[in-house]
Each structure stands twice: as structure tokens, then as C-alpha cells.
Amino acid sequence: MVGTAPLTAHWSNWAGNQRGSASTVLRPGSPADVAEAVRAAVSAGGRIRVTGSGHSFTAVAVADDRRMDLSGLDTPARVDVANRLVTVPAGMTLHTLNGLLARHGLALPNLGDIDAQTVAGAISTGTHGTGAGYGCLSTFVEAVTVVTGTGEVLRCSADEHPDVLAAARVSLGALGVLVEVTLRCVDAFVLHAHERPAPLADVLGDLPALIGGHDHVEFYWFPYTERVQVKTNDRVPADDRPLPRWRGWLDDDFLSNTVFAGACRLGRTVPALAPTISAVSARALTERHYTGRSDRVFCTPRRVRFVEMEYGIPREALPEALAALQRIVTGLPFKVLFPVEVRFTAADDIWLSHGYGRDNAYIAVHQYVGMPYEPYFRAFEQVTASLGGRPHWGKLHYRDAASLADAYPRFADFQAVRDRLDPHRVFTNPHLTHVLGA
After folding, report:
1. What is the pLDDT along the chain (438 residues), one digit of tens a residue?
2. What string of H, E and C letters represents the secondary structure of the chain?
3. Spatial CB neighbours of 173, under 8 Å, sequence gap ≥ 6
């Protein structure tokens, strides 16, 4: 049976910038319960949105009718160690999945920098990490089970409904309810992390060698400075240089969260201090080397609340985009308190992936909660859109279906699958109508 909650069930995302009040909260215990709920919604002319961990900054998960919570979905995880495959309920968090894989000597090949998202939410929005040889997390998907807008339970793989798989691996939840996901894994591995401050000009000048010389590369530019913090991760045979507990607490908990939160509050109260805060932040995190289990190196705690926009652009356009971003930050009528994150991914063939058909550089701009951000984000979007940029589906942007159709060569193919799987648009909301059309 499908569990329900009382009327006007309030919900907000992690950042607090998206809120909704569903008429009903559905808590299915099985795929059959999901199918039953979908058929009931269709019969009543209603809508369903599935909410995961609330880590999207857009309104993609906001439910204006029925909200579905998959955390109680009782489908057993299955680990095939010999073939390096894992099948998990779609509502499982990445954190739980990483622990499950580690116990079986496996790991995901790559991860982003947080692990609080559900598996379904992460793949549906194109969540990615960094690394020139790796696409977004959806490239690890081998198969999905989806409950369509007609209540059909559909298993999709390279052999069964491959067109649906091509669309469903990044789908914004517009095709149906993902109830189960099969992911291709690798043997568990150890990463060596090297973090260091550097001049921005030096990093950009040596970028091809930097990206090509490491498994995973990212850097953070501190506004109002010419400084960045560079992080590289490389696979090594042994965990022989673990980060001392005190150093992890000092850098990742105290400096990056507690002290940074205080600095952001100060900057919000006295904006004129923002350049000084940024300059101090650029020099507070010193160089360090350490090794660790892959997911523990990839993922770090994020407790300071912010809003974010992120664009994937052709990799060769990165210097032009960053130069324009520096001019934008300098000319804003308010101050920016958060560093800018830059990452890299490989091309893939997923229809609505930001990396479809090209190697990407990603630029993510952030602003501390309670600070103005829209003029900043809009100016940045104007620059990146002109360079062929594609907005991250889980991050704030102002694009509509018409402009996005031009950015994605397989947009019409996705719409055709959507028309077939959800003819009644039971899985839409105003945000999806804006970005995908009616």
C-alpha cells in the first residue's frame, strides 16, 4: 500500500530557496505501489513529483500536487562483484551506496564533492565530478527500472528499450519514477590528493598539461584576487599517507565550514570587507598531500548554505569565460563571498547530459544565502550561453525550452520519448514546463 501524509505537507530544499506545499505525500513501499499511485494521479488529473535529498537549487523537485518520497522503497540492493555491477533502490543516497560498495571491495569510478543526493536525483540532473577521462555519474548507469506515466513498470537497458535508457539516464524526472538503478562499478581504489594554492595565470597557462597529467583536476578561484586553490586526485596502490584527524578537522571542518561561515556572515553584514575576506581565504588553506578511500577523498562536508549556478562549456572556451567572469564580479553593485569552482569532464552520448558530444569545462558560481545573486548569475549566464554553454539541470539558471532545444542536439528525441512515456504529463511541474515545454 502507498502511505500518505496529511494535507499541506511543507518541503524546502537544502539551500532554502525552493519551497512547496504538496496536497499529499506518497511513501510507496514497492514498485507496484508506485504504479498504483501513478494510475490514481492520472485518473484524478493530478501530478506527482519525486523529491530526493533536496540538493537541487532549481524548482525541479517542487511538487504542487502530490509529492513522492522513495526513501521507504523496499527493493533489495544486489551486488554482483564478479561483473562489478550494483543494483540499488533509486532512493538510496550516494553516501549509503559508497559504504555498500566499499564493503564488497567496489567503488564508483568518480564522484562529485557531496554524497547526500539520492542515486535517482544525482543521475536525473547530470551530477558530475571532475576528470578529463570521466563523464557525469549517469555514464555509469547500465540499466534502470522506471514507472511510466501510464503506470507501466519498464526495465530499460542496452538490450531492452535502449532509447528509453538513453533518455532516462538524465531525465529531470520527466519520464517517470525511477525505482531501481544498475550501476557499473570498479574495484575499490585509493586516491592521492594534492591541494595547493597557485596564481590563476599559471594554472590557465599550463591547463592542458595539468588536466592531462592527473586523473582528476579542479580549482577554485577566489574573487577579487588572482589566486586559486588547485586540487588533483590520482589513483595510487596504497593508503600510506592518511590525513591526520586533526588536519582534516582543521581544514575541512573548522576552516572550510566554521570559520568560512563566520566570514560569510561578516561579509553579508559589511559587504565592503568581501575582497579582504576573499584574499584571506585564498591564503588560509595551505598545501597538503594525503591518501584515502576514493569516496572519502572525492566528497567533503558542505555546511555553509549557498545558492549556485553552474555551466558546462566547451573546454577551449574556459579562459574567455573566466576573463569575462572576473570583469562581471568587479562591476557588480554588490559583493561575492564564495569562490568559483572549475571542473572538467569527458564527452558522453546521453541525450540531455551537459557533456553530450563534447569535452566540457564546468564553471560554478555561488553566493552566500541571504546575499543578492540574480544580476551576477544572469550576467554569467549571458557569457556562457554565448559560448555554447549548457546549464546544470540541478543549478539555478534562466533558460527556457526554446533556448535549450538549440543547446541539445537530441532534445527533440527526448521529447518524443517523454510524449510516449508520460502522455498525460503526470510528472510535470511549472519548472519542467518552462525548461522542457508543455
Report:
1. 565 544 457 899 999 999 999 999 999 999 999 999 999 999 999 999 999 999 999 999 999 899 999 999 988 999 999 999 999 999 999 999 999 999 999 999 999 999 999 999 999 999 999 999 999 999 999 999 999 999 999 999 999 999 999 999 999 999 999 999 999 999 999 999 999 999 999 999 999 999 999 999 999 999 999 999 999 999 999 999 998 876 776 677 766 777 888 888 888 999 999 999 898 888 777 899 999 999 999 998 888 899 999 999 999 999 999 999 999 999 999 999 999 999 999 999 999 999 999 999 999 999 999 999 999 999 999 999 999 999 999 999 999 999 999 999 999 999 999 999 999 999 999 999 999 998
2. CCEECCCCEEEECCCCCCEEEECEEEECCCHHHHHHHHHHHHHCCCCEEEECCCCCCCCCCCCCCEEEECCCCCCCCEEECCCCEEEEECCCEHHHHHHHHHHCCEECCCCCCCCCCEHHHHHHCCCCCCCCCCCCHHHHEEEEEEEECCCCEEEEECCCCHHHHHHHCCCCCCCEEEEEEEEECEECCEEEEEEEEEEHHHHHHCHHHHHHCCCEEEEEECCCCCEEEEEEEEEECCCCCECCHHHHHHHHHHHHHHHHHHHHHHHHHCHHHHHHHHHHHHHHCCCEEEEEEHHHHHCCCCCCCEEEEEEEEEHHHHHHHHHHHHHHHHHCCCCCCCCEEEEEECCECCCCCCCECCCEEEEEEEEECCCCCHHHHHHHHHHHHHCCCEECCCCCCCCCHHHHHHHCCCHHHHHHHHHHHCCCCCCCCHHHHHHHCC
3. 49, 50, 60, 61, 120, 124, 427, 432
CB atoms near residue 223 (< 10 Å): 24
402: cell is 526554446
Report the relative pairing of strands 306-314 and 390-391 from DSSP bridges: antiparallel
Specify the amino acid at residue 196. Answer: R
pTM of the prediction?
A: 0.94
Q: Which of 419, 385, 427, 423 is nearest to 404 (CA)?
A: 385
CA nearest to 219, candidates 233, 227, 209, 230:
230
